[in-house]
Every structure is written in C-alpha cells, then in structure tokens.
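Justification of resources, computational component.

The compute hours requested in this renewal are based largely on the per-chain cost of generating structure records like the one below. Each record pairs the submitted sequence with a full structure-token output. That output is archived, and it is also reused by downstream analysis tasks.
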Amino acid sequence: MSNYIPIIISATALLFSFYSANKKETKEDTTAITAIQIKLENIGADTKEIKSDVRHMKEDLQQIRERLAIVEQSAKSAHKRIDSMAGVETREDRQ
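The structure output for this chain reads:
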C-alpha cells in the first residue's frame, strides 16, 4: 500500500496540472475570441456605414443628373434666343 501513495499523489498532481493548464488556455482562448468578435462587429458597422454613404451618393448623383439636363435645356434655349437676336441685328446692320 505504501508503494501506491506516491503514485496516487503523482497522478493527482498530473491531473491538477492538466486542469490548470487547460483552464489557462481556455481563458486565453476566450480573450482572443472576444477580441476577434469585437473587431468583426466594428467591421460590420463600418460596412453598413459605407453602404449608407454609397446610397446617399447615388441619390445625389441622380439629382445632379436631373439638374444637368435642365441646365442643358436652358442653355440650348438661351443660345437659340441669342442666335435669333444676332440674326435681327445683322439684318438691321445691312439696311
């Protein structure tokens, strides 16, 4: 029986060391996983913000296109009026 006591103590110490090492690794793994999750959440929030910005830029671009079409029509109309006024002046100059 006295031969078994050191074996039992050694086995108990071995089990305790495995348990302690495993607990320490679990704590480190949990810390690492938490950090990764936080970074992923930040990336997700940034992605949503970028999508929102792109959506607003598309809307702004559409408004600019509409305004440009109106300005082009107005410029075309103004050129016609200028051309017609220039035609009247050239006829008056001939007389």
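The chain has a mean pLDDT of 84. Helices lie at 4-94.
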